[in-house]
Design a protein that fits this description.
The protein has 185 residues and is an alpha+beta fold. It has a domain of 127 residues. Strands 3, 4, 5, 6, 7 and 8 form a six-stranded mixed β-sheet that branches. Helix 2 runs parallel beside helix 4. The chain is globular.
């Protein structure tokens, strides 16, 4: 007798049934990702043929975005009440989430990501009806130089960092949140 270890996959969120995305019961998404040549119903221009498509999944696969819906990131997102799929630009991730070598024994990525997520949630509660939000959090960034989105913090190495959070549809219309530098898009 053979027992298969097949995991049933949800057709909506495309995750195992026992690990649905938090938005799955609320939002129904398209079954396929739009591709070059497809005609979409644009809210301003009406029916429009897509001449070029660069998907969120491709940006993650290319390393332009870091997927923050996997592993411990997903647990932290759920604990913070964030139901959208989350990604972060590689630049912001390397600067503020990866742990500087000097602090490898005293900090970890979970704690650094939680600091960002917690301060985002506080700002989002005050501005719940917007699709784009600037928020601030304290961080010891990677690198000694100061960037335009950073001000001096309360300790010598610490900076008060401003990031931008943007919500919008993903490749199939799923709700997504992307953290980035204020100058990125």
């Amino acid at each position: 007798m053979t027992i298969e270890n097949a995991t049933e996959i949800c057709s909506n969120c495309r995750r195992p049934i026992n690990k649905h995305r938090p938005w799955c019961a609320t939002y129904q998404v398209e079954s396929e990702t739009p591709k070059e040549g497809d005609v979409i119903d644009h809210p301003i221009f009406g029916p429009t043929e897509l001449i070029s498509v660069y998907t969120r999944r491709e940006a993650i696969d290319d390393g332009v975005l870091v997927d923050c819906t996997e592993d411990f990131f997903d647990d932290l997102n759920r604990n913070a009440g964030v139901i959208f799929d989350v990604a972060m630009t590689r630049t912001a991730f390397e600067r503020y989430i990866e742990v500087p070598e000097a602090f490898a024994g005293s900090q970890d990525m979970q704690g650094r990501y939680w600091d960002l997520l917690f301060m985002f949630r506080l700002a989002a509660k005050k501005n719940s009806d917007c699709h784009e939000l600037l928020f601030e959090f304290l961080s010891i960034p990677n690198g000694s130089d100061s960037w335009a989105n950073e001000r001096a913090g309360t300790m010598p190495d610490q900076r008060l960092v401003q990031l931008r959070a943007v919500t919008g549809p993903g490749d199939r219309g799923e709700p997504c949140l992307t953290f980035m530098l204020p100058c990125e898009d």
